[in-house]
Design brief:
The protein is mainly α. Helices cover 55% and strands 1% of the residues.
Amino acid sequence: MSEWSAIDTGSASSLFAYRQTQAFRLLELPDFGGGDLNAAQRRNALLNAVNFHKPLAALSMFLGVVALEDYLRDLGARMAGHAFLLQHFPSLSQLRATPKTRLPIHTFKQLETEPIASFEPERINALLKTAIGIAPIPQAEFPRLRDLALVRHTVAHHAAVVRQVDLPRFQYYIVRANQVINPPVDFVHETLRYVYGIGRAVDEQIRRRVFSVVLPTLASEWADSPPSELLSLFEFFGYFGFLESTTGPAGYAEPGTLEHKLMQAESSRIKRQLINRCIAELKLSIKARAGNEDSNA
């Protein structure tokens, strides 16, 4: 990661003042409207200015890592609350959050204990291994993911300034003590794509595992007449990420109007299309799995 300047972290008051300055200046972007710059040059100048507008780049990474943490936490909680999934994977119940009794004076303490409270790849794999029988995060990715969790913590609690005590904890990135985490834009974009890819890969592996267990328990005509339980799984997994474009009106319409009826009909059409695409995807995966089994026989 690149740095711009060292920060005096030995004084609590100086670090506090620095963080307040960060908060104020984060909303003060430079003005490139004047001068003889053309549109492309102004945009390029603004992109380069991000690197001098700390901790904007680090904050962008923070948002991406927190999104992954929250996604995995919410995914586990939603699976633990899905009655049909629990029938096939009873151990999913361990992913439920446990409520805590708090006194009114404990304003900021957590109101529940969450199994996936922070991004710890080993723990997430162990929980999912017990719950559904897979460990979806490759061990080779552990060092980078641990470092990103540490970056998130550093941005949230230490003004994006790397502490001396944290240096030995970094295993993937090269950092320096008392330096601001301030990576270039291209680095941030690549990192965010990586984080998103990890989340999508976990989702896909969980989905494949779920349907490999559920489909054999359904009647043979599940593809022609999908049961409500199967449809609930399509919805749970966001219709496998498929998208359909509308050809009719969109937005809000008063109930009972012609426009509202057209929107309802279009919504039903789109849902049918998404269901058909999910069924086709499952058929392809079954065919591919059968082909792999034949080749390994």
